[in-house]
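Posting for a labmate who doesn't have an account.
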Amino acid sequence: MNEYCDKITIAIPVYNRELFFEQALDSALLQTVKCKVIVVDNASDSNFFRETCELKTVDYYRNEVNIGMFANWNRCIELTKTEFVMILGDDDLLEPNFVEFFSKSLNNYPQLDVFYSNFYLLYDFTNKKKMISANKMFEKPFGYYDDGRILLNYASRNGLGFPTISSVFRISKFGYYYTELHGSNDWLLFYSIFSNKCKIFGTPEKLVYYRKSVLADTNKPFTKSVMGLSHSYIYNEIIDKYCDKELRLITKTRALKSFLDFLVVSPKTLVNDIRNKRNIYSDYLNIKLKEDSIYRVFYYCPKIFLISTVYFMRILLKYLFKN
């Protein structure tokens, strides 16, 4: 099949991580329906990515300095000239029919804003590879919906988990990733857009392989700390405002639990450092500690009490979900 889809660009942001890059790039190039592929290098230490792209005649862009991960993702968006973009991790893989599936979905639903698929988790800690289906771990509402707020209700019931790693989005609808502090800024962007009634289509077909690695950015201590705070922000400031009213209690509970997760993994020095910064997460933290007595009480509790409370809240959320 020699078809070409001029609606989508697959953009691969890279920085120093070379091991699986060629596999990721080839999976984008060897699609049954071809599309534009670009690579955006965040000032890596070597010329590996440049040389690889030259050999494969792929458009390569390089930042003069490292601008941070989400800023580099924004650079991918800026350099994309098609209506839609898919940001592919430099160690992830696409099934050969990913673009074909997207193209058919867009033909069926021309007003589509977001396309996403189910995916596999690919573990690769040593030379041994173990691949497991993500079906049970990240079940999603599949099919077409003309109001993306269904995903906000789903997040309230089941927790955050929208598969941004397998998503294609319409650039004019989305805008850019938040860059001031590195939390779950991909979910921040997507759930913000879902609140604006965007049109979505999800397929249960597993079309992406997402690699879990100890080298992933999400495993860095600072990032893991901020993620809990950013999750609390997303629940309270986005999902709670737009989900169905009967889900507000569950949403508030999830927001508080995420805040406790943040306190459990974060040294007090790090928490205070975040409080002294100026960004949406720091402002949210300071406002909560000033205006919400429950958050303020937990802030001063010992970690052993916080850990016990988190365990209890997990049980509570399961109960609320069943009821």
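Reply:
Got it, the structure tokens are right above this. The longest strand covers residues 200-212.
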